[in-house]
Amino acid sequence: MGKASVDKGIAFEDMVEVWLSLKGLAYEKRPRIMSPIGFYIEVDFLVYDSKGKIIVEAKNLEKPVDRDVVMKVWNNVVILGAYKAIIVSSSGYTESAVKLAKRLGRVELYTLEEIVREVESIRFKPQSTFIEPILTPWTALKWVEDKVAERKLFIFKTERGESIESIYIPLFYIRCKIPVDQGKVRETRILVSALTGLPLAYDQKSRIIYDALEHIVDLPKDILEIYRVHAGRRVARSEIIQYYGESTWIRLMKHLTPRGLVKRITERPVTVEIINIYPTIDALEQVVESIEKTRKTDKPQSDFEVKEQLYSQGSITLFLEQVLRAKTQTIIQLYAPVYKVKLVDNRGNYRNIIVAGWIKEPTIYNTKYFI
Q: pLDDT band at 70, cuts 50/70/90?
């Protein structure tokens, strides 16, 4: 995969994000950060590792990056307290930019070609564990047609299965500790999708596995913390204003209302219920139990497409810590088989149904990734 294929198929910034993900780094994309002197700074990526913060800037310019860009990035390093910066350029660097970066010593310069080569070298390392499918594609297709397809008068099918794809999706098997009631900590296991960055939960009654917490994944950090503390509670407007200020109350309602995470209870005084969408630990563990006794191999079956991870171990660990207060102990990558069944109705409209291929009793996997 050379530069041409990147230009044609993958956005330049996306390639930089893939590079960060494959290196297992935790990062935020395009964060707006308040500087110590009161103004906002926006960077392409703010990366975290064991040493501290790293600023990463992706420069997709027609001309080589000049010294002015290097100096601006270095200033952001100083202001934000990062220990270094990385600039990735699609068009190279001027001689003065290279000299300035060497003199400053805290700005590393990469080209697109270097990033592509490193991504390829990481991708072609031996893969992780693959779960062997229990269901066959034919079983999954027939089950979807029989149990999921819509019917007219409860008898005549109005949808049919047009095609089916066999896919391995990347997951992270995580052992961690999660705080529970009264300051106690529970050791547990979680499966997290490396395609969405979200934990998987299992509704056994409905036989549905789903991406949990998707409605709060993009909440600002301060709003997320307030939601975490008050989820499932009824709170008065005056209580939020007393502890967090009126502007925070306005922002809280602005973010939670369109997501359906708040319900007005009384008008005078204003009281609301913060809707709790956190899955139970049992629902998280039941997904893990569904894969723990399956047969596994080190190679995928030849007729399966293998999806590459979009979220790094570091990013997922950071997310779990922010949302669940989870302390990760071990993390292992594995791949689980799913079947994507395309249902088409009489008018040509279609929808995709994802079936978990590692569970004997057919189970739907609801995920925003395949929408």
A: very high
Asked if residue 269 has a cis previous peptide bond (ω within 30° of 0), the answer is: yes
DSSP string of 59-124? E--SS-B-HHHHHHHHHHHHHHT-SEEEEEESS-B-HHHHHHHHHHSSEEEEEHHHHHHHHHHHHT
pLDDT digits (tens, 9 = 90+) for 207-230: 899 999 988 888 888 899 899 889
Give the DSSP per-residue string, 281-296.
HHHHHHHHHHHHTS-E
Mean pLDDT, residues 311-337 taken together: 87
CATH numbers and ranges of domains, the chain: 3-123 (3.40.1350.10), 129-213+279-370 (no CATH), 221-274 (1.10.10)
Q: Which of 44, 29, 123 is nearest to 90 (CA)?
A: 44
Nearest-angstrom CA–CA distance, 173 and 130: 12
